[in-house]
Design goal:
elongated, two-stranded antiparallel ribbon, mainly alpha
Length: 78
């Protein structure tokens, strides 16, 4: 259970048609190139919480994850 809201109004990604973002769409937005630093504080928190859950499900036991992961940087290969 998290205290963070489950959606946030899009006031920061003018090129995106979404009126609201949920954690999964924020995660995808960053994954595909939106700069994590440009997210509002609440949105960053949503992405961090979502990615924690995502990596728990999607990484092998013992595998280390770092956040923001390399895929959240401009150097990421998409």
């Amino acid at each position: 259970a998290t205290s963070t809201s489950k959606r946030i109004k899009n006031t920061f990604a003018p090129d995106c048609d979404n009126e609201y973002f949920v954690p999964a769409t924020l995660f995808s937005l960053c994954k595909y190139g939106f700069p994590f630093e440009k997210l509002p504080k609440e949105a960053k928190k949503m992405v961090e919480e979502y990615s924690d859950e995502y990596y728990k499900r999607c990484t092998k036991t013992g595998e280390k994850t770092k956040f923001p992961s390399p895929m959240f940087t401009p150097e990421a290969i998409l």
